[in-house]
């Protein structure tokens, strides 16, 4: 099996393999995103020990599992470890016995599951690295976990003995559209780019979900099979996904529920009011957890400070589950076909396409020819007053060279046609933005659409630049 996509991550790993010093790496990201697969497959020729923690197992079972794998992969007939200090002592002794001609990889997966109360795991890891691992120039220690917040708190932002010890962190995000297309082609699944957009809106770029797609199926058949059949992978994934990541998952689910009802984002205060979660450390940790795992995105409003940020849900599967899967009877025949023809689908698809655009800012910059230019992406909303009606722009790109793009995102199944009334609406939004923000920069309207817009007189009158969905696949 080959590792598709992940070019930046592979370049990082290549650099670590040739590093002249010991390396301590933390890999994190959403569950099902392919962290374990990337490390095991790309580094398999350098792997000397690979161990994974088990959920809901006590410390004695974890140690027994460790010893079994160590005896199988490294050295047999070694003393049984009574604690994690003994376990790491076995690893260090083994590493000292190896030739130092090339990097060897120790891969410890699902560390949050190993760090049980009173297990002593973190203290043992700390001692191992500080006393032994950091002195071994041939060691590449890779730690991993789906509970991203645990990785960030206990390793990357650690206090005490592990402070500043991680030498490299890798946040593994879902596949981009380009990586998704490459993955599907590798599996000999032939979809048009428009169809790939439709699939992405349902499951995002999650490799585990994409791998469940069967050949010779239409997009509607794929969605119906995975989401609405009795044993469909995505029909039963939602709550187990969150409970596998978070100890107090009900709070996380409450935030996700609230944000799904307000797809264009909510302020911190609005989330507190909607969820009834007490304002304090627990609430902040819940928000941080969801951001760290890629379920929600914090967006700064144009011209505002961080404390005025809004939070927007960007996990495609979570939105789709709450919006459609949960509300329909699992097992009913051809559920998705009836939904896909509804007005609700049209509204959802427009929002989902906007989310795709938000997560492909790099590709949008490239299409505009401003990849090397500093710019800031944000959102903007004006609630209206006695003089002007409310309006909003869900994507604003503020360029250092004096131009601000107000993007309009349109998901259609054919060429988009600007009408006189629609153009007037865009022109009015631009005028209100200029007046309210008092900006001195040139404000322009830009269009992101699935297909080329018809370049009629209204397009030429208002649209400064266009990005097509084809550009998002670069």
Q: How is this structure best described in words?
A:
This protein is 45% helix and 16% strand. The protein has 474 residues and is of the alpha/beta class. It folds into three domains: 7-171, P-loop containing nucleotide triphosphate hydrolases (Rossmann fold), CATH 3.40.50; 176-359, Arc Repressor Mutant, subunit A; 367-473, Trna Endonuclease, Chain: A, domain 1 (3-Layer(aba) Sandwich). The protein has a five-stranded parallel beta sheet with strand order 2-3-4-1-5, with helices on both faces. Helix 4 runs parallel beside helix 6 (121-131). The protein starts with 6 loop residues before the first helix and ends in a 6-residue tail after the last strand. The model has no long low-confidence stretch (mean pLDDT 94).
Topology:
Elements: H1 7-17, E1 23-28, H2 35-42, E2 47-52, H3 59-73, H4 84-97, E3 104-109, H5 111-114, H6 121-131, E4 139-145, H7 148-156, E5 168-171, H8 177-186, H9 193-203, H10 207-210, H11 219-227, H12 238-245, H13 249-261, E6 266-267, H14 268-275, H15 281-292, E7 296-299, E8 310-313, H16 316-325, H17 335-340, H18 343-358, H19 361-368, E9 375-382, E10 391-399, E11 403-410, H20 420-437, E12 442-449, H21 457-462, E13 463-468
Parallel strand pairs: 1-4, 1-5, 2-3, 3-4, 11-12, 12-13
Antiparallel strand pairs: 6-8, 7-8, 9-10, 10-11
Helix pairs in contact: 3-4, 4-6, 9-16, 9-18, 12-13
């Amino acid at each position: 099996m080959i590792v598709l996509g992940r070019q930046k991550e592979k370049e990082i790993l290549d650099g670590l393999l040739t590093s002249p010093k010991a390396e301590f790496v933390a890999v994190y990201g959403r569950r099902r995103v392919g962290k374990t697969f990337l490390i095991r497959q790309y580094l398999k020729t350098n792997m000397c020990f690979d161990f994974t923690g088990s959920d809901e197992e006590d410390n004695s079972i974890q140690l027994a599992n460790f010893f079994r794998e160590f005896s199988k992969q490294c050295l047999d007939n070694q003393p049984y470890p009574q604690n994690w200090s003994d376990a790491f002592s076995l690893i260090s002794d083994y590493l000292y016995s190896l030739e130092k001609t090339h990097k060897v990889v120790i891969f410890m997966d699902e560390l949050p599951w190993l760090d049980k109360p009173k297990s002593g795991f973190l203290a043992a890891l700390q001692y191992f690295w500080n006393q032994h691992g950091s002195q071994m120039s041939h060691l590449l220690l890779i730690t991993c976990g789906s509970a991203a917040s645990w990785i960030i708190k206990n390793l990357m932002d650690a206090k005490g003995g592990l402070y500043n010890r991680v030498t490299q962190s890798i946040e593994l995000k879902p596949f981009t559209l380009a990586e998704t297309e490459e993955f599907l082609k590798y599996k000999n699944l032939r979809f048009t780019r428009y169809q790939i957009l439709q699939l992405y809106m349902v499951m995002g770029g999650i490799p585990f979900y994409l791998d469940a797609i069967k050949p010779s199926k239409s997009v509607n058949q794929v969605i119906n099979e995975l989401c609405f059949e009795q044993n469909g992978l995505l029909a039963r994934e939602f709550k187990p996904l969150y409970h596998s990541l978070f100890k107090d998952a009900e709070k996380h689910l409450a935030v996700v529920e609230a944000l799904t009802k307000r797809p264009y984002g909510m302020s911190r205060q609005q989330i507190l009011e909607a969820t009834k979660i007490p304002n304090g450390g627990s609430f902040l940790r819940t928000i941080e957890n969801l951001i760290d795992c890629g379920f929600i995105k914090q967006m700064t409003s144009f011209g505002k400070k961080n404390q005025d940020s809004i939070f927007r849900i960007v996990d495609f599967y979570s939105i789709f589950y709450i919006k459609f899967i949960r509300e329909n009877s699992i097992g009913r025949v051809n559920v998705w076909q009836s939904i896909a023809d509804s007005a609700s689908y049209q509204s959802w698809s427009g929002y989902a396409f906007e989310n795709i655009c938000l997560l492909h800012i790099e590709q949008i910059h490239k299409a505009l020819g401003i990849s090397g230019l500093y710019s800031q992406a944000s959102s903007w909303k004006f609630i209206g007053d006695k003089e002007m009606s409310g309006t909003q722009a869900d994507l604003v790109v503020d360029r250092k060279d004096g131009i601000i793009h107000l993007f309009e995102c349109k998901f259609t199944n054919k060429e988009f046609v600007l009408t006189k009334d629609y153009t007037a609406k865009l022109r009015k939004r631009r005028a209100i933005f200029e007046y309210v923000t008092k900006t001195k920069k040139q404000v322009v309207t830009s269009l992101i659409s699935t297909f080329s817009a018809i370049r009629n007189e209204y397009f030429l009158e208002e649209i400064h630049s266009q990005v097509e969905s084809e550009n998002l696949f670069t």
